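Contributing: when you submit paired examples, paste them exactly as shown. First protein:
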Amino acid sequence: MTDAELLEQFEQLTLPFEHWTHQAHVRVAFIYLQRFDFEQALDRLRAGIKAFNAHNNVPESATSGYNETTTHAFAHLIAATMHAYGEQVPVADSLAFCEAHPQLMTRHVLRLFYSPQCRMNPMAKATFIPPDLAPLPRRK
């Protein structure tokens, strides 16, 4: 699926739920970060994930549903990676970005920055909580 197709299906809420994988999350964040500054990209990603989850009846619980800390931290890591490697390793599209940066292809990468207690804090779902193990890398 091309970047344009993925983004259109995500925004129109027609992307099949089984295609909303971790890689799809990274791809959509990458596309938004290419087009907008960090805050605008994060706003679009946040709104899109919430709408997609609601459309697909994803339950909100301690371990399910939208998580602001996870979304913000991953967007931050993607932006930092784009900044650090963008000129040295240019990529054609979001799939090439994912292939070039396998470290982002596991949602467990946040374990380098967050303890389980911090990420499972109920406040982490609603508001961004800074990491407690190591700082996130600089975005710019």
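Second protein:
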Amino acid sequence: MRRSIVIAGLMLAIATPFSAQAQPTDAALAETLYQQARALMDQKRYDEACQKFAESHRLDPATGTLLNLASCNEARGKLATAWVEFNEALTAARRDGRDDRVAFARERIAAIEPRLSRITINVPNESDVPGLEIRMDGVLIGRAAWGVPAPTDPGTHKFEVIAPDRKPWSQSIQLGAQADQQTIRIPALVPAPRAAEGGDPVTPGGPIVGPDRSVTERPTPTSVYITGGATVLLVIGAGVTGAVFLDKKSTYNEKNSDPASSPSDRESARDSARAWGVMNGAVTIGAVAGGALTAYLYLTRPEVKRSARVTPWMTDRGGGLTVSAPIF
């Protein structure tokens, strides 16, 4: 079965059914990758084997596959990665009620922990400026991890530090294969150079901020929105009253041409049509007046001067100008 555990060529058989969530095609491919990974482990081609174990577990997650992946990473010297994977497998084995896997994961965790290499990120108070960001190998390290001896795989690790209005800083360290303890101290970042005397600082790769300037704007006053809204309502009213007027007028014409209708019916229909016609005329005049008033208020709105900042910027992706002003 593909859920067996391989360690330095020694196989511990552990039978596990396929994940119920995996699709048949994924499960079949996962099984093929698992078998290939086992063969590569036997040949001590650990890098290739780990890649196949990882893909097999992604396609069809299973505790046994995860234990094999952890064992593979341990064999190729990635102890921190193996330690994390064994801990994940321990949790999964407890959930599954597999005491044999729980015991195996605990054994490997206990064996790995004394051999872990660790890196501590030390950020002195004078270095902890607002907006400070620390990345290791391109991955952002959260503040909660600062000052913590974090298990890390051996090899070269690059640290990059940035902050607003400061020059970036970077440094690489070489971490030993086993039980190496290293601390990287983040220095106080140097303020970025100024674009010009009295100007704002320049952050390499970031925006170049220009001086404050004044811009003239003509904001739309509240009165325009009020009269405009009223005009819209009047236009709707004109349409409704106009439709009713036409209907009443049609009714009057029918009764007036019908010899069977009484004079009182014709007079009532005429009065109703006349009333709606007067109403429609008044509402239409109001809509026209409202539109004219709205246009007048908008076209004669006053000018307002505001302080603005013109910001030229340039990065490796291009450049441009940004104009920003406060919102009143």
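If you have annotations for the second protein, write them as plain sentences, like these:
The mean pLDDT is 80.
The helical segments are 24-42, 46-59, 63-75, 79-96, 99-112, 222-257, 263-299.
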